[in-house]
């Protein structure tokens, strides 16, 4: 039995991820298309009309926006504790995907909010904390691209991710305090049991799985790109020295 | 540690510029707002808490890159890192010097600027209290941002992008305390939260800032 940590070896990671991607990518496409088409075909809601269908983009994107930040935090911690380069590169690769998920959640929310609440944007706690999350993503990405030395960049962004996580969480509760909101509570919740009829719920689950798979696929592809970029830089550096 | 604090303060005073700059910037912000929103006293009174806090925050941001940049350039930061004093303590002292030079003048001058913006009299003590409790957090968080960006060219712009989201909770609670004070409501809850953020930041952020400095000095 091989240890999980051996996948921190880039060569091994490249080999395994290549093999995984070969079936992960088609699976992602399949689940996403099924989920979104099913979501598109659900009957109109009696109150929200056809706009309810935007939920199938909005909710999974919002979910992934937060999950990706958590994944970046875990990857940064692994890098800082065990110095696995693939981990740091995975955190770097995840950030733009997370930022895009945040943007998708904000834009679909605005498109939904216009007919429902009569406004594109409201300074509501949930909306505002997503905007702040986007700022954290932007700062994180900017820091990655600003530092030249790769290891220093990984270290600094790791520290930033750690501090940023604390403050992102703090902001989340601070904005609650600051303004009572317009956004409805969680649509799916384990505790409250049935809140959404099955006709709407199952396509939503499928879309959530599809978005999670999409993130995994993009993460693997982008991490592979990062590794190749780093190899290329190493080759160039060796050539320059020779 | 005290020697470091005194040295930083002396440098700040002798170099000029840095000392009054934050205050002048604060004054200009408060002067520009009425031009932007119109000289309506009632409106100004309503938005004054927010404007004063945002102004304080921006004035603080203005001088952040000076915390470590000068010491980085002349190499004294390397000496500090190898000094017998822990780097965390040095960071704390640097932030304290920054606060004494920019934060404290803002706190002291705030009532005057509140007057300019028609801030209700009842809110003035709360403005001073919330700034006094909140601006140390701005300084120490800023020291973290400055530590992260110290080795970078054009670090100043990046610094503001990194630091401003970190300022959000402090801004919310600080301005909320002033707003409630002005309305005659009980402002202790947001004030306590502001103090809590400052206390937690002072306790934890120096470690992150020192870690970032060590990475940059490597």
TrEMBL record, chain A:
Compartment(s) of residence: Cell inner membrane; Membrane
Membrane topology: Multi-pass membrane protein
Domain Cytochrome c assembly protein as annotated: residue spans: 5-183
Domain of life: Bacteria
Gene Ontology annotations of biological process type: cytochrome complex assembly
Keywords assigned: Cell inner membrane, Cell membrane, Cytochrome c-type biogenesis, Membrane, Transmembrane, Transmembrane helix, Transport
An annotated GO cellular component: plasma membrane
GO molecular function annotations of the record: heme binding; heme transmembrane transporter activity
Pfam families noted in UniProt: Cytochrom_C_asm (PF01578)
Regions crossing the membrane: 20-41, 61-81, 93-113, 125-144, 156-175, 202-221
Protein family (similarity comment): Belongs to the CcmC/CycZ/HelC family.
Matching NCBIfam families: ccmC
Protein purpose: Required for the export of heme to the periplasm for the biogenesis of c-type cytochromes.
Protein name: Heme exporter protein C
Organism the protein comes from: Paracoccus suum
UniProtKB/TrEMBL annotation, chain B:
Record keywords: Cell inner membrane, Cell membrane, Cytochrome c-type biogenesis, Membrane, Transmembrane, Transmembrane helix, Transport
Positions of transmembrane segments: 12-37, 43-64, 96-117, 123-150, 157-178, 190-213
Alphabetized InterPro entries for the sequence: Cyt_c_biogenesis_CcmB (IPR003544), Cyt_c_CcmB_bac (IPR026031)
GO cellular component terms, semicolon-separated: plasma membrane
Coarse class of the protein's main subcellular location: membrane
Organism taxonomic ancestry: Bacteria, Pseudomonadati, Pseudomonadota, Alphaproteobacteria, Rhodobacterales
Family the UniProt entry places it in: Belongs to the CcmB/CycW/HelB family.
Membrane-topology annotation of the record: Multi-pass membrane protein
Function: Required for the export of heme to the periplasm for the biogenesis of c-type cytochromes.
Any one Gene Ontology BP term: cytochrome complex assembly
Record protein name field: Heme exporter protein B
GO molecular function, one term: heme transmembrane transporter activity
Any Pfam family: CcmB
PANTHER family reported for this sequence: CYTOCHROME C BIOGENESIS B-RELATED, HEME EXPORTER PROTEIN B
Subcellular location: Cell inner membrane
Key word ATP-binding present: no
Transmembrane keyword on record: yes
